[in-house]
Amino acid sequence: MSMTEFPTAPDKTALERGEVLAPRFDANGLMAVVTTHAETGEVLMFAWMNAEALARTLELGEAVYFSRSRNEIWHKGATSGQIQKIVEMRIDCDQDCLWLKVLPQGDGGACHVGFRSCFYRVVEDGKLVERP
Amino acid sequence: MSMTEFPTAPDKTALERGEVLAPRFDANGLMAVVTTHAETGEVLMFAWMNAEALARTLELGEAVYFSRSRNEIWHKGATSGQIQKIVEMRIDCDQDCLWLKVLPQGDGGACHVGFRSCFYRVVEDGKLVERP
């Protein structure tokens, strides 16, 4: 599908300072995605997108990831109700990572374990402690 | 070095709810790291750690990454002065991603392009716009 094709930046300047979205997918065709809560700033989850997931995310205005475990496109919340409405999308300097600021719908959660955020444990003195 | 050895969680419950730090490194021996500013919540950068980088980060209380481009341990700020003092470290549900809340030292920046954060561009209507 043509919608899943993105250009490649011709040089470093275009990649880092250009206005053309030229995402760099890795050897597996994936790019990293950091998702934060648009209101609290909390990091909710970390996931991956392939070109199709990115194209669908841009089209929908909702987060669509690529599930590496299920090896398929994953419209977050399609079954759980935890749809992520995108408030802002940013990309990093070398265009291999996206930052989504979202408003989680449904019960407001993002993590399959049942927590609001996947990052519910703090590393303290080498141990993990669950903390909101 | 024994300091770079971490245990493997024996099962899903231990991985997701346990108090033992059992980081899951990928096929390249790396895990994803999201770094935010401890005071503003802004996502500053996205990077990687191998076991040695994680062990040194825990020991130092400062972010030590693994540079994939240089293929070496990278004590952030060692040359730039942009040392990242760790205020809190969190790990996600399946222990393959870390979230560091840091206080950037030196000029307060984190990005090699010169911006405070690597995410200095917003994706808007398919175009990239530089915005603080």
Automatic annotation (TrEMBL), chains A, B:
Binds 1 Mg(2+) ion per subunit. Binds 1 zinc ion per subunit. Its EC number is 3.5.4.19. Its cofactor is Mg(2+); Zn(2+). Gene3D superfamilies: Phosphoribosyl-AMP cyclohydrolase (3.10.20.810). It catalyses: 1-(5-phospho-beta-D-ribosyl)-5'-AMP + H2O = 1-(5-phospho-beta-D-ribosyl)-5-[(5-phospho-beta-D-ribosylamino)methylideneamino]imidazole-4-carboxamide. Mg(2+) binds at residues 92, 94, 96. Keywords: Amino-acid biosynthesis, Cytoplasm, Histidine biosynthesis, Hydrolase, Magnesium, Metal-binding, Zinc. Zn(2+) binds at residues 93, 111, 118. It is found in: Cytoplasm. Pathway: Amino-acid biosynthesis; L-histidine biosynthesis; L-histidine from 5-phospho-alpha-D-ribose 1-diphosphate: step 3/9. Catalyzes the hydrolysis of the adenine ring of phosphoribosyl-AMP. Belongs to the PRA-CH family. Homodimer. This is Phosphoribosyl-AMP cyclohydrolase.
